[in-house]
Design goal:
The chain is built from nine helices and no strands. By secondary structure, it is mainly alpha-helical.
């Protein structure tokens, strides 16, 4: 198993300063460390993973790794947050990609399937791993779903005029269906084409969401 590439495309000035070069190199090294740590944590689990192995896979010395991260817990939390941000940003972009509600539902569901398809290790780390008992880790994992539910419920409330509680209930259903369907699709070896899997979840979710009245704009 190899670490999944994490794209890094900094905007480089025509005449970068020495400070810019140092910051860019440090950011790139950090992202490489997160990619290596993702691989090790997914393969070993939090408790069995070692900073030695992560440093080796990242091409760092152990002292340099400890200079960037105070310990394994801080590194694990940084890895989690990186993947959580990738998922929630994808869901938010999907919700703002169109004003047609059915297309919004499609885009939000596809964001989950794209995440599981393109960031498989990140998905497994966030949703398909034995979450350590460390409170800060459990809280961070819980926020992954909560942030997506919040993004969807905000859109539902805006379009329908439903109360926050009702909007959040609908959003939780959509997010839950998307997450578990995407995980099932992954666990079964992508047994059906991704487009077909997405269409099945859309059919399930749209049947309920299409009955939600739109708020009058008059």
């Amino acid at each position: 198993m190899t670490a999944e590439p994490i794209e890094y495309e900094p905007t480089i000035p025509s005449r970068p300063s020495a400070k810019f070069v140092v910051r860019a190199r440090r950011a790139l090294r950090r992202r490489r460390a997160l990619a290596a740590a993702t691989e090790v944590f997914v393969a070993r689990g939090f408790h069995a993973a070692t900073m030695d192995e992560i440093a080796h896979r990242a091409g760092w010395s152990k002292p340099i790794l400890y200079k960037e991260f105070s310990g394994k817990l801080e590194l694990y939390l940084a890895v989690l947050q990186h993947h959580i941000d990738a998922l929630t940003d994808g869901v938010r972009r999907a919700l703002h990609s169109t004003t047609a509600n059915r297309d919004r539902v499609r885009a939000a569901i596809q964001a989950y399937f794209d995440f599981v398809d393109h960031e498989t290790q990140g998905f497994r780390l966030v949703f398909d791993a034995n979450v350590p008992s460390e409170p800060s880790i459990r809280w961070r994992v819980g926020r992954a779903t909560d942030d997506c539910v919040t993004a969807v419920s905000t859109a539902v409330a805006h379009d329908s005029g439903l109360s926050p509680n009702r909007s959040r209930m609908l959003a939780a259903g959509l997010v839950g269906a998307s997450q578990f369907a995407a995980q099932h699709w992954l666990d079964t070896g992508r047994a059906v084409p991704k487009a077909d899997a997405i269409a099945a979840v859309i059919t399930l979710c749209w049947g309920g969401l299409s009955s939600v009245p739109l708020q009058s704009t008059q």
